[in-house]
Specification:
Belongs to the DNA mismatch repair MutL/HexB family. With 323 residues, the protein is an alpha+beta fold. 31% of the residues lie in helices and 27% in strands. Strand 1 and strand 2 form a beta hairpin. The N and C termini lie far apart (67 Å). About 4% of the residues have low confidence. The protein binds adenosine-5'-diphosphate (ADP) and magnesium ion (MG).
Length: 323
């Protein structure tokens, strides 16, 4: 069991950001409206994720740390109909195998909760405790028992960069969830969770940047596009200003990036980096998200239609500004 968990851990848990990802995805799956992530020393010292979601029933708390103990698949048919972010039931056991984990959870508003402590895969404590509804999970001393893995960790700044990049993506794709990221006592990101995408953009890029944005809405039979694109006269020194959310999931697409850039460059043939946050909706059959489950890349079955549609929609918004 221990060895199996440590091997699985190598696949799920690569660095502190992978722990944050798994815990935040669980919090989202639990229907949370508020998720707070607090990390110390780039997550190498500790990672704490607190949510106000469904919580875990007291009798299911220790089971959640067994391998393949997912509550998200009832039968094998569900495997072909996956809507939740996590479905393999490997995250919690994998994380607990290579760190010291403390979980406090309550599944009702009656103040009755359950606390469990697992270190290096070994159960240390399990007891009743008072807790608000939701889950509060702390991961300390990641990789303390796998020194070979610990050696591969980069600087605190690099590890934190991976964490904050991930949290920005989550905030952009979930404007309806109030998200907070703290590092060593400083608030790095805080969104209100009122569903307003522009508010999330302001939280990430600053108010000045948010003021330079134009709303966009376009639709045809296959696609709906909503979001914001920066004014054509607004310049940005950094190329990481394009965010694309497809059917609620943050994705990366070289083709869509090119289409967005082209909309600017055909209008103003100078090199500039736009800020753009686009929510694209389409029938799920038109996008294959399982090209690589761990990656952000997807495949569009109608990219010949989608890319030009995005380009012309943005072009139209920008042209109104230039004229
Ligand atoms: P998976 O997400 O693939 O089901 P995990 O190992 O990530 O597997 O989690 C195991 C189980 O623990 C989940 O299926 C869920 O029932 C429960 N769980 C984990 N985190 C939370 C949370 N934040 N809120 C509610 N339930 C949770
Ligand atoms: Mg999970």
């Amino acid at each position: 069991e221990h060895i199996a968990n440590q091997i699985a851990a190598g696949e799920v848990v690569e660095r502190p950001a992978s722990v944050v990802k798994e815990l935040v995805e669980n919090a989202i799956d639990a229907g949370s409206s508020r998720i707070e992530v607090t990390v110390e020393e780039g997550g190498l010292e500790s990672i704490r994720v607190t949510d106000d979601g469904s919580g875990i029933e007291p009798e299911d708390v220790s089971t959640a740390f067994y391998r393949h103990a997912t509550s998200k698949i009832e039968n094998s048919r569900d495997l072909f109909n996956i809507t939740s972010l996590g479905f393999r039931g490997e995250a919690l056991p994998s994380i607990a195998a290579v760190a010291k984990v403390e979980l406090v959870t309550a599944s009702a508003d009656n103040g009755l909760g359950r606390r469990i402590v697992i270190e290096g895969g070994r159960l240390v404590t399990e007891e009743d405790t008072a807790a608000p509804k939701g889950t509060d999970l702390t991961v300390r001393e990641l990789f303390y028992n796998t020194p070979a893995r610990l050696k591969y960790m980069k600087t605190i700044q690099t590890e934190l960069g991976h964490i904050s990049d991930y949290m920005y993506r989550i905030a952009l794709s979930h404007p309806g969830i109030a998200i907070t990221l703290r590092h060593n006592g400083n608030v790095l990101l805080q969104t209100v969770g009122n569903g307003d995408l522009l508010q999330v953009v302001a939280a990430i890029y600053g108010r000045q940047a948010a003021k330079a944005l134009l709303p966009i809405h376009a639709e045809n039979l296959d696609f709906t596009i909503d979001g914001y694109v920066s004014r054509p006269d607004w310049t940005r020194s950094n190329r990481n200003g394009i965010s694309i959310i497809v059917n609620g999931r943050y994705i990366r697409s070289y083709g869509l990036n090119q289409a967005i850039q082209r909309a600017y460059h055909t209008l103003l043939p100078i090199n500039r980096y736009p800020l753009a946050v686009l929510e694209v909706k389409m029938h799920p059959s038109l996008v294959d998200v399982n090209v690589h489950p761990a990656k952000l890349e997807v495949r569009f079955s109608k990219e010949q239609e989608l890319f030009p549609f995005v380009e012309s929609s943005i072009h139209q918004v920008l042209r109104q500004e230039v004229l």
